[in-house]
Amino acid sequence: xxxxxxxxxxxxxxxxxxxxxxxxxxxxxxxxxxxxxxxxxxxxxxxxxxxxxxxxxxxxxxxxxxxxxxxxxxxxxxxxxxxxxxxxxxxxxxxxxxxxxxxxxxxxxxxxxxxxxxxxxxxxx
Length: 125
Fold this sequence. Notes:
Blueprint: H1 2-12, H2 16-30, H3 36-50, E1 59-65, H4 70-81, H5 85-93, E2 97-103, H6 105-117, E3 121-124
Antiparallel strand pairs: 1-2, 1-3
């Protein structure tokens, strides 16, 4: 154990250049590469980091089904969109119709909450 402590003390006194030379000599003597495992481990992380994740900023609110309270759903659609009665009715009766297009996340979630509160089935895309 004392020999290991002495060896650690001696290695601690090496300069950076001497330590690099020691690494080269040990790699040659033992036939290994100190850099290979580090490079392999870092490559997948770098690939993941290189692909920035785009956060969606515009959302569509799509009605799937008006539900049992269709009149209430039509009222909410009119409040959200300022559509006329007939147009709002058409949107409420058409599965997959966009109630709102290209709105912010908060506005989309707010509209979804209001429509679901009156019984509609809604999806934010």
